[in-house]
């Protein structure tokens, strides 16, 4: 299989599997309990907290574990319920929909801008947003879900008040995430009814999941994975982009290669439908996504591609190739053995359909 859907979710790192297997047996006790097994569980959770804090230049008590990026995003927006909430049109639905439902007119405002988008990989002007927010006394949140492990992160240098992370985008388990909350900024818990996370998020600690997240974070820190992304992965991504443009008529890129994460490539193929391309590739063992996996099952064109291109045809004919640490040059060769034929077939069907009408 050629897996090119890492931005949707990454396979578990071997290190995370091993750590979680061990944790299931050794660290099963409720981490809030006063007994010794409880303390042992809590110590492991605190290890992960330290690891993440170090990696993003935060204090450990500025990290809250959550069930994933969607919950982290919801928590920040909920904190600003009734306030002006300004987001980019490229945000994940867990920001856009929540802001729509809960936003109001009160100040201070919350600005929520991701540093890099998950569908096209492109960078957003977060420095300008922070400047703007500071001028008017507003707060800034950034969804860094796709950035963790792909670029070095320093929340203090970025001057962020809140930041969102998810374990499953870096080889940790699905269902675990984190929220950075700068000391002293407003905060309202989303889940009330427990003393966990210093009363900032009720419910029993997900010890095993957090340990898996810790193992993935350790891998990221020890291997400085952002350096691998900047070299090996960028080379693979750029090579695929070059070959697509050269070898496939009617192809175009929705990702600006010079202003994006090194592992995401979004391309459109004239007169070929994204879902059909995805299914034909799937039949050949090549795994990609159309727009965003979170939006699949939804027949509307991706809001990100619409915001970026303003063209529903381009959005409907788009494919996201997202790379991870397991990809090789052979994967690119395999894609380019199959993709031109798939597009050609679909374009021909589409021409036939048009002629019949
Ligand atoms: N934000 C971004 C930018 C994402 O890419 C995703 C996952 N597609 C999410 C939020 C949601 O993450 P989770 O599955 O951890 O809730």
What can you see in these coordinates?
- The longest helix has 28 residues, at 329-356.
- The protein folds into 2 domains: 14-223, Aspartate Aminotransferase, domain 2 (3-Layer(aba) Sandwich), CATH 3.40.640; 224-356, Aspartate Aminotransferase, domain 1.
- The protein has helices spanning 14-26, 36-56, 69-79, 93-102, 126-135, 155-158, 196-199, 207-223, 225-247, 274-283, 303-309, 312-316, 329-356; strands at 2-3, 63-66, 83-87, 106-112, 139-143, 162-166, 177-181, 251-253, 264-269, 286-287, 318-322.
- With 357 residues, the protein is α/β, with parallel strands linked by helices.
- 48% of the residues are buried.
- Strand 3 (83-87), helix 4 and strand 4 form a beta-alpha-beta unit.
- The strands form 3 sheets. It has a 6-stranded mixed β-sheet with strand order 2-7-6-5-4-3, with helices on both faces.
- The chain is globular.
- Helix 1 packs antiparallel against helix 8 and helix 3 packs parallel to helix 4.
- The mean pLDDT is 95.
- The structure holds 4'-deoxy-4'-aminopyridoxal-5'-phosphate.
Ions, cofactors, ligands: which are bound? 4'-deoxy-4'-aminopyridoxal-5'-phosphate
Query: What is the chain-wise order of helices and strands?
Result: EHHEHEHEHEHEEHHHEEHEHHEH
Q: Which second-level CATH architecture of the largest domain applies? A: 3-Layer(aba) Sandwich
Number-wise, the strands total 11
- Helicity level: 40-55%
CATH class of the largest domain: Alpha Beta
Number of helical segments with 4 or more residues: 13
The averaged pLDDT comes out at 95
Give a short account of the largest sheet.
Answer: 6 strands, mixed
Under CATH, the topology of the largest domain can be stated as: Aspartate Aminotransferase, domain 2
Strand content: 5-15%
Supply Rg. Answer: 21 Å
CATH superfamily of the largest domain: Type I PLP-dependent aspartate aminotransferase-like (Major domain)
Shape: globular
